[in-house]
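job 3f2a | input accepted
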Amino acid sequence: MVAPGTPGDVVAWLSALCERQGAAGPMMLIAAQTLIAASGVLPASLLGIAAGTLLGAGAGFAAAATGTMAGALLSFGIGRRLLRGRRAGGLTGGRWVAALDRSVAAEGWRLVCLMRLSPVMPFAPTSYALSLSRVRLSDYLLGTLAALPALLVYVMLGALGRTAFAGEAEWLRGCLLVLGLGATVLLLRKLKRLAGRLAGEQP
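job 3f2a | predicted structure (203 res):
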C-alpha cells in the first residue's frame, strides 16, 4: 500500500483502510482517534473527516467523539501518573509557579474550555500540560467537551464530501475559524489577567 501524502490522501487512505475492516471499521476508527488524540502524531481533524466520509455525520461523530474523549482521558492519566508523579504539590519551581498552578486550578473548566476552542493550542500537548497542574479531572473533562463542536464540523465536512453539495460546507469552515479566533482572544486576555494578578502578589 502506498503511503499517503497530502491531507486528502490521508483521509482517503484511512477511510479505505477502515472500510475494508467491515463491521470492525468503526471500532478501528475509535482506536485510531484515541491514539491520535493522546499522541498528536496527526491532526485529529483528519480522523474526523475520515469518520464522516465512512460512517456519515451521526455515527461518524459518535465514533470520533468517543475516541477524542478517550484520548484526552488517556493522556491526562499518563501525565498524572508518569510526569506529575504522586507528589501532592503538583508543579514545582518556586512560589510563582505554585501561585500560577493555583490560579489555573481556580479557573478550572473555563480555562480548559478556552484552550480547547483555540486553534493555537495543540490538543495532545495541552492535555499533558494540564495534567501537570492542579486542574481537577472533572473540570478537565468538562472543558474538553468544548473540542467536540469543532470535531463535529470536520465530521460533517467528511460526510458532505460524499455528496454534490460539498462546496456548500465552506461556511462551516468560516464559523469554525471565527469561533477559534474568538476563543484565542479570550484566552490571551484571561492569561494576561492571571499574569498581572500574580505579578501583583510578588514581594
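job 3f2a | Confidence is low (pLDDT under 50) at residues 87-92.
job 3f2a | closed
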